[in-house]
Amino acid sequence: MTAPQEAFPSDADDVERHPCPRCRAEPGSPCRSRSGAVAGTYHTGRFTKVPRLAKLLRVPTPADRGPGQLWRPGTPVPLALATDTPSADIRIGYAR
Q1: Where is the DNA-binding phage zinc finger domain (predicted)?
Q2: Does residue 50 contact residue 85 with C-beta atoms inside 8 Å?
Q3: Which of 26, 65, 66, 79 fits a disulfide with 30 by CB distance 3.0 to 4.6 angstroms?
Q4: Nearest CA among 71, 58, 63 for reference residue 31
């Protein structure tokens, strides 16, 4: 029996946590080619930041990321709340 996909992050998830110094892809998105399509492999400067992948020569982009197809942004990352904005963690009273 295999573990669920969410239990172990994939190589792609670990690589995409870092920005790409070559194509300037933001964290959370795959590397892109000069034409704007999703690259077939991640750029070396990006996957070497993941210690367990640093010695590999290539890390292919998974099929679910759409390598070779024009890159389209997904759901934008939610903006961070201002530090002076009250959040739901404010306590009105204390329990005994």
Answers
A1: 12-62
A2: no
A3: 65
A4: 71
